[in-house]
Amino acid sequence: MLLPSSIYCNRFRYLLLFIGFFCLTSICSNYSVINFTFICMADGDSELIDSGNGTLVSRYSYSPKEKSAIIWAVAIGTIVGTFPINYAYIQYGARWPFFISGMISAFSTAIMPLAAYLGLPVLIVFRFMQGLAYAADFAAIGILCVRWAPLSETSLFISILTCFTQISSVITNPLSGWLCTSSLGWRAAFYVHAAFGVLMFCLWIMFYQDDPHLHPDVTDVELEKIQRDKTQAHIDRDSFVPYKAILKNTVILVVWFNAFVEMVTVTLLIVYAPIYFHMVLGYEVSLTGILVSFATSIHLPLKFTGGLLSDKITCVEERKKMIFFNTIAVGMAGVFCTLIGIFPGDWSKTGVALFTLSITCMGMNPGGFYKCGTLSSRQYAHFVLATIQFMKCVALFVAPGTVALFVYDERRHDQWRYVYWINGALLILANFVFIPIATDQPASFTLITRATVEEEKRKRDAAEPLTLSESGSSPRRSGPTSSASKTLEDSKSVPEKA
């Protein structure tokens, strides 16, 4: 039963924000827990098998290529699931599709120890299921921002919801490290994460609804704030999306490029941090978990602060704020990523510091390309952010792919450095491309709605008989002029760089 609305003091949206955040974190933690348990699953001699040449090896010992395949299985699942799940969000809202995805994630995580025991093919199947569930994350962020975030709190919502990857690392790595070295063993890490996921998604299904104006715990005061300065098309929950117009928009394409490059780099840094810290920098397993958590968590206060500052500072032009935050989040992160490859592996403290600085800089992205994409796409932000999720799952291919291409011995820094140089250079390039197109104005495609498309069709159909009577010859289509086209022409009064 929901609590009385007076309990929330006109801030019920924040309860949904944090429930949604922990659900996102749960799905991410569920797929990433194995990244840490890799380094302790093979320990011990209780489950040895014959490798085929008379040598006994651990049942859970995986080669670098097998580890890449295990990671790629999630990427494949996410690629397969991204657009079907996004379609489900558009048609049915986020309540049930996100809940079902969370349950799939929890189940596949709980079964993971058994899957690993049964062999690599079975393990990959359940990793694929985790990937299907993970595909639900970014579209959920888009729905929460579109439906529940006031325009004046866009960066705050984005800063909290998009830090689930780092928070999952902060929780998962030390917890998995402690469980691995305890009497409970590495299997408990999967069971604990699965149980947490079930709890969070039960809260989600209890409290969440897609329409603020229909929710019994949203007061008139809060509803007015949520809907303030939004168009009716933004407020209405319509399944229409002008895909073609969005895909041709320069601003959105550049936002996606920045997102993709950053996703590849953050995947590289977070997924391979336990292996890099342990194998190259030489830290013990237990200390590795603490250091990785430190490197991925220290930026969080800066991320929240940056999101608030981006919303609250009104004396600086919005476009200039976007460029400033994006230069830190993408450009400076690229510089520090490049330096990881320059400093030698025996400079362990410097390596940890550069990892930390690179990830910390990325914490400013809510005020950069994320905010640009959300404000430009307005009511269609869920599709823009869902596409970023698609790019994130492609990044799950690209990051392990670059590692597999250059790294044959995980202990050799001279092989890892090429991976960091490539990622750093691409980050710097992405920021330079972003600077000239940054804008906070709604894109022209936000004026294209189901109504304008239907009006265009009616006008075109009405114009056809006139064309036939004037020509007195064979049927001929009228010119391309349409209400949607007229809408786009009228939208020239809306400032936009595209």
Automatic annotation (TrEMBL):
Residue spans of biased composition, Basic and acidic residues class: 487-498
Lineage, opening ranks: Eukaryota, Metazoa, Ecdysozoa, Nematoda, Chromadorea
InterPro entries assigned to the protein according to its UniProt record, in alphabetical order: MFS, MFS_dom, MFS_trans_sf
Residue ranges of the TM segments: 12-33, 69-90, 96-120, 156-176, 188-207, 251-273, 280-302, 322-343, 350-368, 380-406, 418-438
Predominant location: membrane
Any single Pfam family the record assigns to this protein: MFS_1
Bias (Low complexity) ranges: 469-485
Membrane-topology annotation of the record: Multi-pass membrane protein
GO CC terms of this entry: membrane
UniProt-recorded name of the protein: Membrane transporter
PANTHER family: MAJOR FACILITATOR SUPERFAMILY (MFS) PROFILE DOMAIN-CONTAINING PROTEIN (PTHR45757:SF17), PROTEIN CBG23364-RELATED (PTHR45757)
Region (Disordered): 455-498
Any one Gene Ontology molecular-function term assigned to this protein's record: transmembrane transporter activity
Intracellular or extracellular location(s): Membrane
